[in-house]
């Protein structure tokens, strides 16, 4: 996790002088997960510290109508961070902000505010924290002379390859060093299965900090890649015929006594709480897929043959199901959701899986039995016998599942829920109207 500090306003003023900070990036995230920022000169520091920075919310996807557009940015000073790179005119600091209405109330359409709300519900249910350990994957492509990404990969390496095959190694190492300078505790960095594909894992954090870290991570990866003439993309399936990029989410739930998923005497050393939380994840899987896999392209990754999950099932011993229970126990007992990808809005994705799990606890949902063999080798009758259903085939199917799930509506709040569905239906309609090269190659000469 990135190091957090309980900075006071006076601490920030002192750091600005000592570190020659000249610009402030005030960062927040829109409903679709796009990182936004308002950059202001350091002369605006006092206005920032006193919650007086205003912006036009009507220009941000999924926020507000023009007639209610004035919004305020309230900085979370624990997210204050100076970027390791600098300009000729001084250094740049960032702080992540929550969006507030002119009335002084948190804006319910802000994904970060929404996650804070869901975490309050979790605490009222008797838990202290929900930890997330993300495993984001990305591709590095070469850029053309105009700085645009090509479809030429930077290498032909594969899983855990070393140089010279892994030509992205130097870039990846600088990403790691930059993240560490920014307070991240990087646990592993390696070449992934597909050519040009990489993974960097950083230490788990509580849900809100984990979502902040994912957004910061994506910014750093893209910034450093450009220094090497490479374009980093978290698009789930940029090329056909090779593995896509996911972002497995390792999750654990705590109370004052520790990890509530662990029970020394339970089956697989898992507690009844773990099984009910897992039951909620299984029950709502089709619905939160629309949030954890939000692009038309996400469903090109969720197909058989490329190590991504296709079926709603769980296991403690194999990697083909949707949810895996890693071997570690004690304080490291966790559930791993393998379907999510890094195009997801992390604040909404984490809120959705947490609410699904809490629903499992509230209703005492018992998950189906674990599936400890390769699901891809089962026929349809065997899958039905084991209560295994398919994940949605495409974004439209996922949106239909989401639209009828009251638990997911609770997870997102009414405003975000409606904005998200509307935006994603527009995206799918635009996709459906396009004619692809595959269609022309397949049909032009036949018909």
From TrEMBL:
InterPro entries linked: Gln_synt_N, Gln_synt_N_sf, Gln_synth/guanido_kin_cat_dom, Gln_synth_cat_dom, Gln_synth_gly_rich_site, Gln_synth_I, Gln_synth_N_conserv_site
KW NAD (keyword) present: no
EC number: 6.3.1.2
Main localization of the protein described in the UniProt heading: cytoplasm
Source domain of life: Bacteria
Enzyme superclass (EC): ligase
Subcellular location: Cytoplasm
Occurrences of domain GS beta-grasp (ranges): 19-104
Name assigned to this protein: Glutamine synthetase
Source organism of this protein record: Apilactobacillus apinorum
Gene (UniProt): glnA
């Amino acid at each position: 996790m990135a190091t957090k500090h309980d900075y006071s306003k006076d601490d920030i003023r002192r750091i600005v002088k000592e570190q020659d900070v000249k610009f402030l990036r005030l960062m927040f995230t829109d409903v679709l997960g796009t990182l936004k920022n308002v950059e202001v000169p350091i002369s605006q520091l006092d206005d920032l510290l006193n919650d007086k920075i205003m912006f036009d919310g009507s220009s941000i996807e999924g926020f507000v109508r023009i007639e209610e557009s004035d919004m305020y940015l309230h900085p979370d000073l624990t997210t204050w961070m100076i970027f390791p790179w600098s300009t000729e005119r001084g250094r740049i600091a960032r702080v992540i902000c929550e969006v507030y209405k002119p009335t002084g109330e948190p804006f319910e359409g802000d994904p970060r505010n929404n996650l804070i709300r869901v975490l309050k519900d979790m605490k009222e249910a008797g838990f202290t924290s929900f930890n997330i350990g993300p495993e984001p994957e990305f591709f590095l492509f070469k850029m053309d002379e105009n700085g645009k990404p090509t479809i030429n990969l930077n290498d032909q390496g594969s899983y855990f390859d070393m140089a010279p095959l892994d030509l992205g190694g130097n870039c990846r190492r600088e990403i790691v060093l930059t993240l560490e300078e920014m307070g991240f505790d990087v646990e592993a960095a390696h070449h992934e299965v597909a050519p040009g594909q990489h993974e960097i894992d950083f230490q788990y954090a509580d849900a809100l900090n984990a979502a902040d870290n994912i957004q910061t991570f994506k910014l750093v990866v893209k910034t450093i890649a450009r220094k090497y003439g490479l374009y980093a993309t978290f698009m789930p399936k940029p090329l056909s015929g090779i593995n896509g990029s996911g972002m497995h989410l390792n999750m654990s739930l705590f109370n004052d006594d520790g990890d509530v998923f662990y029970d020394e005497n339970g089956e697989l050393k898992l507690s009844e709480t773990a099984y009910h939380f897992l039951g909620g994840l299984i029950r709502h899987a089709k619905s939160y897929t629309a949030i954890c896999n939000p692009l038309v392209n996400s469903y090109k990754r969720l197909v058989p043959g490329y190590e991504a999950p296709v079926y709603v099932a769980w296991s403690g011993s194999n990697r083909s199901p949707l949810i895996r229970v890693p071997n570690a126990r004690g304080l490291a007992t966790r559930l791993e959701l393998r379907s999510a990808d890094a195009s997801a809005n992390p604040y909404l994705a984490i809120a959705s899986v947490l609410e699904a799990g809490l629903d499992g606890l509230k209703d005492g949902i018992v998950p189906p039995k674990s599936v400890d063999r390769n699901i891809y080798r089962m026929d349809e009758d065997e899958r039905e016998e084991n209560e295994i259903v398919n994940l949605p085939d495409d974004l439209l199917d996922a949106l239909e599942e989401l639209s009828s799930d009251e638990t997911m509506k609770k997870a997102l709040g009414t405003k975000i829920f409606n904005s998200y569905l509307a935006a994603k239906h527009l995206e799918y309609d635009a996709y459906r109207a396009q004619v692809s090269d595959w269609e022309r190659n397949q049909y032009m000469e036949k018909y």
